[in-house]
Structures are given as C-alpha cells and as structure tokens.
Amino acid sequence: VHRIRNYLVEASKTANGEFRTHIQRDQPGFCNRHVTVSGEGDSFFEYLLKEWIRTDHQDVQAIELYNKSLTTFDRLRMIRTSAKGSVYLTDSQHGSPGQSMSHLACFAGGMFALGAETKDESDKWFKRGKDLTQTCRKSYAQTETGLGPESFVFTDSIDAVAVSGNAKFYYLRPETVESYFYMWRFTHDPIYRKYAWDVVQALEKHCRVNSGYSGLRNVNDSNPELDDVQQSYFIAETLKYLYLIFCDDSVLPLDRWVFNTEAHPFPIIPRSTA
User: Fold this and answer.
1) Which whole-number Å values give the CA distances from 216 to 126, 150, 191, 228, in the listed order?
2) 261 is in an annotated binding site
3) CA–CA separation, 218 and 137 (whole Å)
4) How is the chain classified by DSSP, letter by letter?
5) What is the pLDDT of residues 185-210, one digit of tens each?
6) N or C, which end of the chain has less CB nearby within 10 Å?
7) Sign of torsion, CA 39 45 50 55?
C-alpha cells in the first residue's frame, strides 16, 4: 500500500499536486487531467481518511494526503454553489469545473463530515458535508419516485435534476443513504431518519419485486420501467446503512469501527496493538 501511495505522490509532483484518474505505468505520472470524487477516483480519497482512522491516527501520511486533496478540491473549484444556492461537488477536467454531480459523489457528504475536526457547522468541512448531503437529498425529493438519478445538473433554471436519458437511471446505489448515516450519527437530527425512511418507502413502492429489488430506468416516471438487476452492493451497502440509521449507536460505533467503501466494517486498531 505504501509503495503504491508513494508512486502516486511522485506522480502528483508533476501534476500540480493533483491525484488524477489515469496513471502512467512505466514512470510516476498521470495520463490525463481529470480529478474526480466520483467513479475512478472516489475510493482513493475515502481510503486516505479511513486508513488514518483505522490505524488510530498513526498513518500520518494518509491524513496529510487527504488534507492535501481537500486543498486541491478548493483550488480547482470542484465544490460549487448553484444559482439556486445548492452546494454540489463536481469533476475537474483540464483545470475547469463542471456543472453536474454524480450519485457516486454523494458519499462525500459523509466523508467530509467524518474527517471534520469538529462535528458541527463551525467546521468548514462538516458544513460542506451537510450541505452536500442536502443537495443529494434534493435530487431524490424532486423526482416522481423519490429516488435519486445517476447524475444531475445545475444551471440558472434547473437545480439537481437529471437531464439525459442515462442520467435518469437509479441503480439501487448507497451513496446518499451513506451520508444520511454519518450525518445521523454525528448530529442525531431526526431529519436524517426521515430522509432514510422516505428512501425505504420509495424502494418498497417502486423497486420491490418477488425475488428482491430492481433498479429503475427513469426516476422521473411515476410508473417506472425496471432494469431487472439487483446490484450486489444494494445488500452490502444500501440496506446496511438504512438499517444502521435506525439502530442504536452502540451497533458498530464509529469510535471502534470504520467502514470500507463497500460498507464492510473494519476494527480500529488501538495504538497499543498497532
């Protein structure tokens, strides 16, 4: 792990300190100028923070690189505020931010909250985590099904809405409820249990079939066509986080366990035994 991480650190030195998505094989460097907290990039940033937590704050390089990445997100203007006031997290292509957010990036609300030094709005990154979670909730609340699209855009006239056909799919993804889980654990604001229960009801109404649950081809259709696929992560992540939101905090407490990107819990290794 450290060998790979050190290779990426060397590569970032030729990329303005950025961790991009495609890596050169023969020497440290990147093949593109794409920085994302969505597909191809999400788990890297998440694991920097979570490895620091898993090692009981002993992996100093991990947290240094995580904090460096947060600075990069700011420099590249990847955290944006829409014309209607929604905070969203977009990609950077060739140094320029986009105007959309993917469902995959909705986990970042929970990640930013988890990494915040204080768990209240006085911390910039906790506040951003809360705001991103609210934007992802908005992407759900505005659809006919109450379930979130694969990606959504922000313009002067629309806010957190899927436009293209493929963007309107719902693949039973966990990222939004994952952020609900962290926000619930840190705030105990009952609104996050309400949001989670809204998802449960929408799943039962639109996705439940005789043999399990299916994704949807258009979240903006009140009678949506099913895609006839139950994703493996639906059980491992989506249902697990929904369950944990309604459990007592003593079930997998966050001061003793850390979840990997597939929501499998790993014990935090105390300093005395690491």
Assistant:
1) 32, 10, 26, 8
2) yes
3) 17
4) -HHHHHHHHHHHTTTTT---S-B-SSSS-BSS-EE-SSTTTHHHHHHHHHHHHHTTT--HHHHHHHHHHHHHHHHTT-EEE-TTS-EEE--EETTEE-SEEEGGGGGHHHHHHHH-SSSSTTSHHHHHHHHHHHHHHHHHHTSSSS---SEEEE-SS-EEE--STGGG-B----HHHHHHHHHHHHH--THHHHHHHHHHHHHHHHTEETTEE--BS-TT-SSPPB-----HHIIIIIIHHHHHHTS-TTSS-TTTEEE-TT--EEE---TTT-
5) 999 999 999 999 999 999 999 999 99
6) N
7) positive
Q: Mind listing the domains of the chain with CATH numbers?
A: 37-58+77-267 (1.50.10.10)
Which residues does the annotation mark as catalytic?
A: 150
